[in-house]
Amino acid sequence: QSVLTQPPSVSGAPGQRVTISCTGSSSNIGAGYDVHWYQQLPGTAPKLLIYANTIRPSGVPDRFSGSKSGTSASLAITGLQAEVEADYYCQSYDSSLGGSVFGGGTKLTVL
Amino acid sequence: EVQLVQSGAEVKKPGESLRISCKGSGYSFSTYWIAWVRQMPGKGLEWMGIMYPGDSDTRYSPSFQGQVTISADKSISTAYLQWSSLRASDTAVYYCARRGDGYHAFDPWGQGTLVTVSS
């Protein structure tokens, strides 16, 4: 059981918008620690998608956006295309564990 | 270009020891924390621990404390993850990743090292 909770899967039709939630607690997201998001395409290493809740690294398309409120964060993906089919992970810091924690991951399927 | 390059796949028997490596290039290796992350077959990412090569300060996840050892040789810009006695349950892909300044996100990541433990 992951410290950060994500839905196991989400799906959407081409062109649609989907969101992926990441729910934590008062010892991680709720304590004010930043949330970061990663994309893992099949058979490859994770890639940083969003850092510090809302910031896109250089080269990441603006179809990806992040938000955070209270003990939760969300990743939104607009204009769905087949190329974004991947696993997505959130990550934060947990003060009770004294280190970083990941969500369980969400598999995005483009219908 | 900032890059982390990991050592190749390993096949080991239970009880054997192993050390895998992660070589950094394109930046000052000693001044950024390096983390190790496990991904078991078909499963999610698990943070194992992190080290600051500059002074060897090391932190472990409670789940991995005592199970692995993280180290680094800053003279050759290389971090290591080692086991003294492997188990079948250690079969996984292991990634190293650099933690950013200020914002503690991991970027970039190494390409991953597949460790297979089987009798």
Question: Can you describe this structure?
Answer:
The complex is a heterodimer of chains A (111) and B (119). By secondary structure, chain A is mostly beta strands. Chain A contains no helices and 9 strands. Chain A has strands at 9-12, 18-23, 36-40, 47-50, 64-69, 72-77, 86-94, 99-102, 106-110. In chain A, the strands form 2 sheets. In chain A, strands 1, 3, 4, 7, 8 and 9 form a 6-stranded mixed β-sheet that branches. Chain A is globular, with a radius of gyration of 13 Å. Chain B is built from no helices and 11 strands. Chain B has strands spanning 3-6, 10-12, 18-25, 34-39, 45-52, 57-60, 69-73, 78-83, 92-99, 106-109, 113-117. In chain B, the strands form 2 sheets. In chain B, strands 2, 4, 5, 6, 9, 10 and 11 form a 7-stranded mixed β-sheet that branches. The N and C termini of chain B lie far apart (40 Å). The interface between A and B is medium-sized, with 26 and 25 residues.
Topology diagram in text:
The complex is a heterodimer of chains A (111) and B (119).
Chain A lengths: L8 E4 L5 E6 L12 E5 L6 E4 L13 E6 L2 E6 L8 E9 L4 E4 L3 E5 L1
Parallel strand pairs in A: 1-9
Antiparallel strand pairs in A: 2-6, 3-4, 3-7, 5-6, 7-8, 7-9
Chain B lengths: L2 E4 L3 E3 L5 E8 L8 E6 L5 E8 L4 E4 L8 E5 L4 E6 L8 E8 L6 E4 L3 E5 L2
Parallel strand pairs in B: 2-11
Antiparallel strand pairs in B: 1-3, 3-8, 4-5, 4-9, 5-6, 7-8, 9-10, 9-11
